[in-house]
Design brief:
The complex is a heterotrimer. Chain A is an alpha+beta fold. Chain A folds into 2 domains: about 230 residues, no CATH class; about 130 residues, no CATH class. Chain A has an 8-stranded mixed sheet, sandwiched between helices. Chain A is globular and about 65 Å long. The relative contact order of chain A is 0.16. A 6-stranded antiparallel sheet of chain B has the order 5-4-7-2-3-6. A 6-stranded mixed sheet of chain B has the order 10-9-8-11-12-15, sandwiched between helices. A two-stranded antiparallel sheet of chain B has the order 13-14. The N terminus of chain B is likely disordered. Chain B has 2 domains: about 120 residues, Beta Barrel (Elongation Factor Tu (Ef-tu), domain 3); about 130 residues, Rossmann fold (3-Layer(aba) Sandwich), CATH 3.40.50. Chain B is globular and about 50 Å long. Chain C is α/β, with parallel strands linked by helices. Chain C has 2 domains: about 150 residues, NADH:ubiquinone oxidoreductase-like, 20kDa subunit (Rossmann fold, 3-Layer(aba) Sandwich), CATH 3.40.50.700; about 90 residues, no CATH class. Chain C is about 40% helix and about 10% strand. Chain C contains 12 helices and 5 strands. In chain C, strands 2-1-3-4-5 form a 5-stranded parallel sheet. In chain C, helix 3 links the parallel strand 3 and strand 4. Chain C is globular and about 60 Å long. The chains are: A alpha+beta, B alpha/beta, C alpha/beta. Chains in contact: A-B, A-C, B-C. Chains A and C meet through strand 5, helix 10 and strand 13 of A and helix 2, helix 6, helix 7, helix 8 and helix 10 of C.
Chain lengths: ~400, ~300, ~260
């Protein structure tokens, strides 16, 4: 039998259990493989060795300040949506050494900071997080400077995307034009259908590894009709998301009107709504930390007691802390209202000026993981509703 | 293992350094494959006490000879780096065309600047830079210049004054208005005679005079009020506390100077100074990269919003 | 070589747990001993050297009349005075008596209360003398202590963040117990420093590090109550190790007596 070499525009069927072969192939190529798993009551990214670790038959119910998993035997392996973790946790880790400086005889010299060398493969990445990846690429690769550590990890990253078949109430990727279809930034994309996955190729590396699975006889060709049906799955979901309406007794489906949003926010920097939301906002920083695009960081000096051996650690920073804007004269963003405004206007407006894209991909994490259920789609709607003409 | 000197030579490749020529720095620069954290070693050649807690540090880049690669434009800043303590954004106060080194004038008010105050002549001082958009002096040729400083804000204007003295013929009338709380915090008064020798007018004012003070008392905006200007031919450069800059800029604008011809230098907490860390944002801008110098027409609307 | 800074450790009303954290610094303690002269630390060393001291670490709250006089003397002896732990920074768990009548408390505990000389309230050190730095926690975190001593020796501001425990949960990748399990957690209003230990084990934050910067307790407890946590449970949550810290104290009073923003 001739080895199957998949074409870029065709889909191949991979039986669900054969996904193990993909994990094994990625591992054999030196990747650390990470995928979604149920832990501590949520679907999180963990090291993945076995397909049985995947959250088969689990669905997530999400709403403002609310996340619960429930069993559904009819659910597939990837019918949960996004959990608290995203690619950011790996590509822009919460803390990382950027510089080590050692002093001898009053002179400093730089020692190379240790860097994670092992390439990463992530399975189960959704369209919203692919969009977030593209946003962070703009920040760290195409902004002013290149972030070399991010660049090193990014170049080696292998992404196995998954097309969503289901949306949580907090999902609004359709409003941000970021999903639910995976259309870019992946090496392979899976669409779950019955007991198998339709696999799409997104890169040469994706094609290479899929060829290896084909050689092992694990792929079957997808007919044109089947491919058409598979490709409509995320688009059907997108239509459904646009048509969702609030119903009593179930979480309100989110959407965000992005029309003129940059000017809307810039023109309403002193809107009374900022003070209303500040009464609820805890300034706890959760929204910024679960956001897959938030990129703020600060550098901490970790020194030994002699002061002669110093490691500079880059750590996540959040505009919800006073330290984020602390100057000698005090914090610029001294009030909770000013901090919430900084976050929201940066995310939905400033980003457009700075990086030519919104900072929001509609993943809904900031809504779900806000302990008091503050919802940015609602805040924008309130400002839009009551903005002076 | 790298020594700092080899880091120096790497830094010579940095577009941010080579672009630091007068008038050529246009916003941010691409800096491919180059760590934004790369440091350069300098030596403290001299320390001058300017005022209580305020010192000027003269720095040289190599044991001997002129600085090899470091070029900056008036109004740019360095991240001064004290390992184990932290980094602070500090404007460069020396003549941008001097080859004998650079200088920083620093008020010891924070962790880094207080630790800096403990260093002595001969000590090593690390820094990275230069960063930011400078005063647009090349674009202001043939115009009258009014340079307005509030307290330590003069530090950021000193390099502009030095540049103007060298290129005195390129500009019309030049006036420096320097205000401070008390007379001792009027910086660089020892340079006034040199400025005047170069045809630069200098006027000072304080809010809290001491018994020996013979000059005017009040805000620096009062000096601007009494200054005769040709608004169409005048550009104003201002650095000081934010409320003072807003007041001065609004007053200058009210006297007919176009907002496009009013320039202010903004201070924010800075981390990376490269537009990566997000700390220094003001409206749509990264102050480190899009500033610190902004024309007032670009920045006024953002400065007007409290806590932005 | 310049003289080593002299360190002293003092104890007031407390369980000694924070002093044990100092001892628990282990390897770092040896490094500290190289850079700092441990001049007075009765828990660790029988020899005690007289003051003055460069760094004074004070554990425990002011609880007796004698304490009031002694802390004044210690303040005079210490150039840089650091209070360590919930007792010293907020009055400790023993400050729960501040809501009771002292004679009733003493009488219910001691057979012969006549010998007990106790103040009506347990109060933090900062209510009695100026304090240069506070290290929070019940007990304090050894890493933060080493950081504090390092910072004082090097001569910079200690890196002790004032932000919420949530930051540490998210850094560790811990799933939020509030959002995923509906547990009323004090983390969003509590200062970080512990490394978010309790949520990592599926438990709520108990507020050991006291209030975070600008905590919004009214919003937090109001939301928990709205989602079904009974008010007395919430009152108990803020009435523990840092009950007397002003933000927690006022919130506890508000929850208990219905006074404050949302009272009828």
């Amino acid at each position: 039998m001739l080895p199957c070499t998949p074409a870029a525009d065709s889909l191949e069927w991979l039986a669900r259990p054969a996904l193990q072969a993909l994990i094994d192939a990625l591992t054999a190529r030196g990747h650390r493989v990470v995928g979604p798993q149920v832990a501590d009551g949520a679907v999180v990214y963990r090291d993945l060795a076995d397909v049985n670790q995947l959250p088969a038959g689990w669905l997530d119910e999400q709403d403002g300040g609310h996340y619960r998993l429930r069993r559904d035997d009819a659910a597939g392996w990837f019918d949960h949506v996004v959990g608290p973790h995203s690619l950011k946790n790996f590509l822009f880790p919460p803390r990382e050494p950027i510089q080590r400086l050692v002093r001898e005889d009053g002179t400093w010299r730089e020692e190379p900071a240790p860097q994670e060398q092992q390439p990463l493969a992530v399975i189960g990445v959704r369209a919203c997080d692919l969009a977030a990846l593209r946003v962070q690429d703009r920040v760290f690769l195409h902004g002013g400077h290149v972030d070399v550590a991010y660049q090193a990890r990014r170049e080696k990253l292998f992404v196995v995307a998954v097309n969503c078949r289901r949306a949580a109430a907090t999902c609004f990727c359709h409003s941000m034009k970021c999903g639910p279809a995976a259309t870019h930034s992946f090496d392979l994309a899976l669409t779950e259908a019955g007991n198998r996955f339709a696999v799409e190729i997104g890169s040469e590396r994706g094609r290479e590894i899929l060829s290896a699975l084909g050689t092992a006889g694990l792929l079957t060709p997808c007919t044109a009709d089947e491919a058409d049906r598979v490709r409509t799955i995320p688009h059907d979901l997108e239509r459904t998301m646009h048509a969702r309406v609030a119903e009593p007794g179930v979480p309100r489906p989110r959407s965000l009107d992005t029309d003129g949003i940059r000017d809307l926010l810039y023109d309403n920097l002193e809107h009374p709504r900022w003070r209303v939301v500040a009464d609820r906002c805890l300034s706890c920083a959760n929204c910024t930390l679960v956001c897959p695009t938030c990129f703020c960081s600060s550098v901490e000096e970790v020194a030994d007691l002699s002061g002669d051996d110093v490691t500079r650690e880059r750590r996540w920073a959040s505009c919800f802390t006073l330290a984020h804007s602390q100057m000698h004269s005090g914090a610029v963003h001294a009030t909770v209202a000013s901090r919430y405004r900084q976050w929201l206007t940066h995310k939905l407006a400033g980003w457009i000026d700075q990086f030519g894209t919104s900072g929001c991909t509609g993943c809904g994490r900031c809504i779900t993981w806000c302990p008091v259920a503050i919802d940015l789609t609602e805040e924008v709607a309130m400002i839009r509703e009551s903005a002076p003409p | 293992m790298n020594s700092m000197n080899s880091l120096n030579s790497t830094h010579a490749m940095s577009p941010s350094a080579s672009a630091g020529m007068q008038g050529q720095v246009q916003g941010h620069v691409q800096c491919q494959g180059h760590s934004p954290w790369q440091l350069q070693a300098t030596r403290i050649a001299a320390i001058r006490e300017e005022a209580p807690g305020v010192r000027t540090y003269s720095l040289t880049f190599a044991p001997r000879g002129p600085r090899p690669s470091f070029r900056f434009a008036a109004g740019q800043f360095n991240m001064v780096s004290l390992p184990g303590i932290g980094e602070a954004a500090i404007s460069i106060t020396s003549d941008p065309e001097s080859l004998s080194g650079i200088a920083h004038t620093v008020h010891a008010v924070g962790s880094v600047t207080r630790a800096l105050a403990r260093l002595e002549v001969g000590d090593e001082l690390l820094l990275r830079g230069p960063y930011g958009v400078p005063w647009p002096l090349a674009d202001l040729r043939d115009r009258d210049l009014v340079l307005v400083a509030g307290g330590l804000g003069l530090a950021s204007l000193l390099s502009a004054i030095a540049f103007c003295m060298t290129h005195r013929g390129d500009y019309g009338r030049i006036t420096v208005l320097s205000g401070a709380k008390t007379p001792v915090y009027l910086l660089a008064t020892n340079h006034h005679h040199r400025w005047r020798d170069h045809g630069i007018d200098v006027h000072c004012i304080v809010t809290d005079p001491d018994p020996r003070w013979r000059g005017p008392v009040g805000l620096v905006s009062m000096l601007l009020d009494s200054l005769t200007i040709d608004p169409d031919a005048t550009s104003l450069l201002c650095c000081g506390p934010e409320p003072m800059m807003i007041a001065v800029a609004e007053q200058a604008n009210a006297r007919g100077i176009a907002r496009e011809q009013i320039f202010v230098s903004i201070e924010r907490l800075m981390g990376c100074a490269s537009g990566l860390c997000g700390l220094c944002q003001l409206g749509p801008f990264f102050v480190c990269r899009d500033g610190p110098v902004f024309s007032y027409d670009r920045i006024a609307r953002w400065l007007a919003v409290p806590h932005l | 070589m310049p003289k080593k800074p002299r360190l002293a450790v003092f104890k007031f009303a407390s369980c000694d747990g924070c002093q044990l954290q100092v001892l628990d610094a282990q390897d770092s303690l040896l490094a500290i001993a190289e850079r700092v002269e441990i001049a007075h630390f009765p828990e660790a060393r029988s020899q005690s050297l007289a003051g003055p001291y460069d760094i004074g670490l004070v554990e425990g709250s002011i609880s007796t009349p004698a304490d009031i006089a002694r802390i004044q003397e210690i303040r005079r002896e210490c150039r840089f005075l650091v209070t360590i732990g919930a007792c010293a920074t907020a009055g400790g768990i023993q400050a729960l008596r501040n809501w009771c009548r002292i004679d009733e408390v003493v009488g219910s505990v001691y057979a012969s209360p006549v010998y007990v000389e106790s103040l009506a309230q347990s109060t933090p050190i900062s209510e009695h003398v100026p304090v240069d730095f506070e290290l929070r926690g019940c007990p304090i975190d050894t890493g933060q202590l080493v950081e504090l001593i390092t910072a004082v020796v090097i001569g910079r501001q200690p890196r002790v963040p004032r932000h919420s425990v949530c930051v540490e949960c998210k850094e560790a990748g811990t799933v939020c117990v509030t959002v995923a399990h509906g547990i009323a957690c004090l983390g969003p209003a509590t200062q970080a420093g512990c490394g978010a230990i309790c949520p990592a084990h599926g438990r709520e934050c108990f507020g050991c590090y006291g209030p975070a910067e600008q905590p919004n307790l009214v919003s937090l407890t109001g939301f928990y109550e709205h989602r079904g946590t009974p008010r007395p449970h919430l009152a108990r949550l803020v009435r523990s190790f840092n009950a007397w810290a002003p933000d927690f104290r006022h919130e506890g009073d508000r929850l208990e007596h219905g006074t404050g923003a949302d009272s009828p």
